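#struct-help
A.M.: can someone run this one for me? Single chain, 150 residues.
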Amino acid sequence: MRKENIAPEEMESVLNRKSGLLGITGRHSDRRDILKDMEAGDQRAALGFDVECYRLRKYIAAYTAALGRVDAIVFTAGAGENSFLHREKVCGGLESFGIRLSARKNKKAFGESKEMEISSPQSRVKVFVIPTNEELMIAEDTFAVTTGRA
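D.P.: on it. Structure tokens below:
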């Protein structure tokens, strides 16, 4: 902040709105746009994708070590539900933790509107894709609050 003479409000904007995937890709925070650009050969989009998947893989490994074991990994919402590439890249390299995907099941889970197990039979850890319905949850929560059932 001192070096660039940035006010605290601007620094907050930089850290909370202009960094992460947007900062890496230079254009996008929506993973669908990142995948499109990546397929078109955009190296910054590919870097954003790789960094995100690496960080998720790192967190899974760290929590596995901290917990001593993991029973299941669940991919949900956005890229978790709709990007077999994300799931493949996140789980790739976690085989030593007993995490193995079925490539066939992982690709089949794309765009499905039902819960699916995508782990391979050899996987000691179950891996699932579980769709969310955020609009339904908001409606149910709103109904509960407004009718005193919360």
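A.M.: thanks! The longest strand covers residues 72-75.
D.P.: also worth noting: The domain at 70-150 is CATH 3.30.420.40 (Nucleotidyltransferase; domain 5).
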